[in-house]
Amino acid sequence: MEESNDVENTEEKVWEKLKEKEEIIEIDSVHQFIEKVHGFTQKESKSSFFYRGEGTLFKTSLPSIFRNKGLFENEKKITNDAMSAGAKDLKRENTNFDIISKIQHHKGITRMLDVTTNALTALFFASSTAEIDGDMGSVQVYFSTDDGTKKFEDNYDHIKEARIKSFTSDTAEVLSTLAFLTTDEKEDLTKDAYVKIGKDENERIFQSNAARQLLGEVRRRIPAFEDRIIPIDLFRPIFVIPSQNDERITRQDGAFLVIGLDIVHEANVHEKKLSYYETQKKYTQEVFESLRVKEDDKPVRFLITSKKVKKKLQNELASLGIHAGKIYADLDHISEYLKSKYSE
């Protein structure tokens, strides 16, 4: 009980801070939520939208690897340990993206953030009343202006614009492979890539030890991978549409927002006062905030204010066929849903 009070008090403090810098839209029905989302998507009809629902109110949403310095500095060890412990579940995964996205979707520690292309799926997660969740919940909306034809220039003006990639793309594979490098190797790679941004095609082949290590890790899974990477691709965020061979991802219309290296750290190399971890975390926060849908220049957040409202939304979503038994593929969740449905 004391833990619940702590969570509640923390959420109240977070809410007070968020109200100052975000456009908060309190929701109490699925109909209202759909109307509001539709309004935003109509205004930006040429954009693609991704949604993230969270059953607890957090100050910021970050990939798990950036939430703690120890996790960040041990990314390679964490990834290798996860692969070793989960070898049976990962043996069918063919690429580094497949491996890291599988780990991520099963609550692992990665540089990916789970999102969905389905707004109602995000609302389902925001309405969660599981023991680990708080009284509040929220949905954030991200966007990309990439329609598959837009040309992204090789310069800083487009650094924070996220492109949409498929799970087969070279960029998705390269950014996923960063998980197999040490912190020192990633920092060296940052320096190597930074000085080559905007150079001609012949300058895009990396010569540093860190770059060769990156390519070596990629080629463990894709031997024919070319030894050429566009430097700025290591800094740009991407939305990745995964393959449909994981039933849970398919049911949830899942996708991933993937972050690469930190260009701020190297751009301010002569003035830096923060550690590599601190600048990477700060840069990731700035990038993710820039990708959120805004109103009056403030990021939009759909807010659920209580467990009572959560329960109401759960019932409304269930009437539309969106419930734990549908969202998850395992018998445990189906059983929990049926128990909740028929209990008095």
Order of helices and strands: HEHEHHHHEHEEHHHEHEHHEEHHH
Number of DSSP-assigned strands: 9
Compute the number of structural domains: 1
Proportion of residues in helical segments = 40-55%
Give the low-confidence spans: 1-6
Largest sheet: 5 strands, mixed
Beta-strand share of residues: 5-15%
Structural category: alpha+beta
**Shape, per Cα inertia axes:** globular
Number of distinct helices: 16
Radius of gyration: 21 Å
Indicate the mean pLDDT. 84
Terminal Cα separation, in Å?
24 Å
General description of the model:
With 344 residues, the chain is α+β, with helices and mostly antiparallel strands. Helix content is 46%, strand content 13%. It has 16 helices and 9 strands. The chain has helices at residues 2-21, 30-43, 69-73, 75-85, 87-90, 96-105, 119-126, 170-177, 183-194, 209-221, 247-251, 263-267, 276-290, 307-319, 324-327, 331-342; strands at 23-26, 48-54, 112-116, 137-144, 163-166, 238-241, 254-258, 294-295, 298-304. Strands 1, 2, 4, 8 and 9 form a 5-stranded mixed beta sheet that branches. Helix 6 packs across helix 8. Residues 1-6 have low confidence and may be disordered.
